[in-house]
Design goal:
ten-stranded antiparallel β-sheet, binds adenosine-5'-triphosphate, magnesium, 2 domains, globular, Rossmann fold, Tumour Suppressor Smad4, about 30% helix
Length: about 290
């Protein structure tokens, strides 16, 4: 079994580690037949992953955070290669959901001796996502976070608190399961996996193999509710807290009068006024 590691050298906060040397040491110790390729620019991991799949690598491993996982996984859709993950981001949502080791030696050992399973894949306006996608405040925070200059959890919390004071919900029309909901949207999250990353459980009951997205709507976020949402995210109790409304569906349409930002797997993509969200059942093989 041949393994290709695709390393994002800009991921994570610990830049002092010689990651290629560590990958080499642990993969050699596990007896793997492997190659390591480093990305040179944003988007490169998708091209490298697709090429590796064409070259017959059985497992193509994203070495990075959820942004790198998204790119590698995108490149593997429709191929015979499986996605592996060596988590090096700050959130690591998909790795955590799949209960993969979060330490480098453990994660390398796992991808070298994996079992295989398939997971669902979401799409929002054609863009694949594997963990979560969303509209509203979380996408707005991703946009501001990308502009912040520094990364990590503390920057994320700082940006969220600053933007919380300014952000207002917008009216939306949501179509799902033959119903039309006229509501306002502070956060509308489409969860394939249960968490955003960092064990922040936006949809604690989400099952990544059930053919359905868990749709989480928070229509407004006054301070008292914000506290309940924060506690619910941290404890995995949001679904029973009454602070959010949930639906499950495999096809959702959303319209807004004004444009709203959307993110995939925590990375801001663009603003739009119409959204088509779909789920492809078991469309990606993962090495777990
Ligand atoms: N060589 C590169 N130079 C610049 N950007 C890159 C490079 N390779 C990948 N990227 C971009 O870096 C972005 C961030 O990567 P990733 O999400 O893996 O790390 P992170 O932000 O540290 O992790 P997390 O999202 O968990 O905080 C990705 O969306 C990817 O497009």
């Amino acid at each position: 079994m041949r393994i290709c590691f695709i390393l994002n050298p800009t991921s994570g906060t610990n830049r002092t580690q010689d990651v290629p040397a560590l990958l080499t040491r642990y993969a050699t110790a596990a007896g793997a037949d492997f190659e390591i390729q480093a990305t040179q620019y944003a988007g490169h991991a998708e091209e490298l992953a697709r090429r590796a799949a064409t070259q017959g690598y059985r497992v193509v491993v994203a070495v990075g955070g959820d942004g790198t996982v998204n790119e590698v996984a995108r490149g593997l859709l429709g191929t015979a290669a499986a996605l592996g993950i060596v988590p090096r981001g700050s959130g690591n949502g998909l790795a955590r959901h799949l209960r993969l080791p979060l330490d480098l030696p453990g994660a390398v050992r796992r991808v070298c001796q994996p079992t295989f399973q398939r997971i669902d894949v979401g799409r929002i306006n054609g863009r694949p996502f594997f963990c979560t996608a969303g509209l509203g405040f979380d996408a707005h925070v991703s946009k501001m976070f990308a502009r912040a200059g520094t990364r990590g959890l503390s920057t994320y919390i700082k940006v969220s608190l600053r933007e919380y004071r300014r952000y207002q919900p917008v009216p939306v029309q949501i179509e799902l399961n033959n119903q039309v909901l006229e509501t306002s949207c502070y956060v509308l999250a489409f969860a394939n996996a249960a968490q955003y990353g960092n064990n922040a459980y936006i949809a604690p009951r989400a099952d990544i193999q059930d053919g359905l997205l868990d749709v989480c709507l928070i229509d407004a976020l006054p301070l008292t509710r914000a506290v309940r949402v924060g506690v619910g995210l941290a404890l995995g109790t949001l679904a029973t807290s009454g602070a959010a409304v949930y639906h499950t569906s495999h096809h959702i349409r959303v319209r807004t009068e004004h444009t709203l930002g959307f993110h995939v797997d925590g990375d801001y993509v663009a603003d739009a006024a119409a959204f088509e969200v779909e789920l492809e059942h078991l469309a990606l093989e993962v090495a777990v």
